[in-house]
Write a structure and sequence with these properties.
The chain is of the alpha+beta class.
């Protein structure tokens, strides 16, 4: 399985960033390539989510189970979709300076091993754009300047 791991310190609280990431129904408003996002089967600490991603030529959707441990952890596991396997984890840890350390882990396996080489590079590129979109959204929601630093 291909894995992507990122860490970033952001000038927001863990609860703010947790709330942003947990608001899956609004992803289509700010995430690049996210055409549709919705959740259902809401429980106290979980939901099921569907995301449709793509562009005008290619569109795919996938369904995941999402488990919440506010305000520090969100785990996501693939239920169905174009990938053979996918899981990701968001961890939000408070920093002494009032900022939040965000740890993001993504592991995925494509259905076709023939496309894996090309698609792995595209996933990494798309992932960087996705993370930048979350940061931009956090700055807009929580009124901060773009001064975060990568760890």
């Amino acid at each position: 399985m291909r894995k992507i791991i990122k860490q970033k310190d952001l000038p927001h609280s863990p609860s703010q960033l947790f709330e942003l990431v947990a608001d899956i129904d609004r992803y289509h408003e700010f995430l690049p390539w996210c055409l549709h996002s919705r959740t259902w089967h809401h429980a106290k600490d979980s939901c099921r989510a569907e995301l449709a991603v793509g562009n005008r030529f290619i569109q795919q959707s996938y369904i995941s189970d999402v488990h919440f441990e506010p305000p520090n952890l969100i785990n996501v596991a693939l239920v169905s979709g174009p990938l053979r396997a996918m899981e990701n984890r968001w961890r939000f840890e408070p920093r002494p300076d009032g900022h939040c350390r965000v740890d993001f882990y993504l592991a995925f396996e494509l259905q076709s091993s023939l496309l894996s080489g090309v698609m792995n590079r595209l996933f990494a590129h798309a992932f960087d754009h996705m993370m930048a979109a979350f940061e931009k959204r956090a700055r807009a929601l929580y009124q901060t300047a773009p001064d975060s630093k990568t760890s």
